[in-house]
Amino acid sequence: MPVTPLPSSVDEVMQLLSAQDYVGERHLATTLYLAMTMGRPLFLEGEAGVGKTEIAKVLASGLKRRLVRLQCYEGLDIASAVYEWNYPRQMIEIRLAEAAGQASKDVLANDIFSERFLVRRPLLQALEASENGPPVLLIDELDRTDEPFEAYLLEVLAEYQVSIPEIGTIKAEEPPLVVITSNRTREIHDAVKRRCFYHWVDYPDKAREFEIIRRKAPQAAETLSREVVAFIAKLRQMELYKAPGVAESIDWAAALAALDRVSLDPEAVGATLGIVLKYQDDIGKFDSATVAQLVEQARSDASGFQS
């Protein structure tokens, strides 16, 4: 299978995003183009639910490349992120060799610490060659990990290689396309950011969010989609523990369409706030009068932006 070439211009990046139903803005496309052209990791920061992870998925799909995803969490270590040894198979190999009396300890040690006993985790998988071209490596929510893991990433991001004491250094023949995301629950060290091209993924403006909903929730009526966008915009201006992201906008529009709504009404909004807001303290701020007022404002604002 021929390798899909990388986009040769910012316009081609915009076309790639659009073909995958990702409604991106030109600044993002420019950063994407430069990161791919110059072989640099892309560091995407922004609130949860604004489409950072989706960018890596879109690149993998649009370029027909394998997506390797490392989902970060507190306590993530090398065994889970990079590699580990298949200890059960090694033990079986040792006992079979001992029973047959076929190998010395030195020979056996060299054998069981060979690549056939190596379990490749996401970072090591991303260094492997593929007939479709280098994979897209998504390091998702790096801010959830600990600083020692960030330090380990430096070798991977700088040299696209992993050092394994028993084997040596494994280096990518061709670097993967790396996308790192962060919800900014803590600051990522400058040493990581310096190795990347940075882009802040903000909430979209109303026109772009409307277009996103039209693509991702086409079953929602146009009037409903516009009012959802206007209502969500009002929520983001309020003091909430967690403002709704684009993902919540899409889910809400689809849910209201499933309830056969073609326009917002206070009853439906009140019954479905849990799709938009994920904390009871936030939901508790909206009594029936507040909901009715916001619905009225959303209906008034819905025609005030151009798609």
Q: Can you summarize this structure?
A:
The protein is α/β, with parallel strands linked by helices and 307 residues long. The protein has helices at residues 10-19, 26-38, 52-63, 78-81, 87-100, 105-112, 122-125, 147-159, 190-194, 206-216, 222-236, 246-258, 266-276, 280-283, 288-301; strands at 42-45, 67-71, 83-85, 118-120, 136-140, 161-164, 168-171, 177-182, 197-200. It folds into three domains: 10-75 and 122-200, P-loop containing nucleotide triphosphate hydrolases (Rossmann fold); 83-116, no CATH class; 206-301.
Describe, in plain words, how this protein is organized in 3D:
With 307 residues, the protein is of the alpha/beta class. It has 3 domains: 10-75 and 122-200, P-loop containing nucleotide triphosphate hydrolases (Rossmann fold, 3-Layer(aba) Sandwich), CATH 3.40.50; 83-116, no CATH class; 206-301. 49% of the residues lie in helices and 12% in strands. It contains 15 helices and 9 strands. It has helices at 10-19, 26-38, 52-63, 78-81, 87-100, 105-112, 122-125, 147-159, 190-194, 206-216, 222-236, 246-258, 266-276, 280-283, 288-301; strands spanning 42-45, 67-71, 83-85, 118-120, 136-140, 161-164, 168-171, 177-182, 197-200. The strands form 3 sheets. It has a 5-stranded parallel sheet. Strands 3-4 form a two-stranded antiparallel sheet. β6 and β7 form a beta hairpin. α1 (10-19) packs across α2, α10 (206-216) crosses α11 and α11 crosses α15. The model has no long low-confidence stretch (mean pLDDT 92).
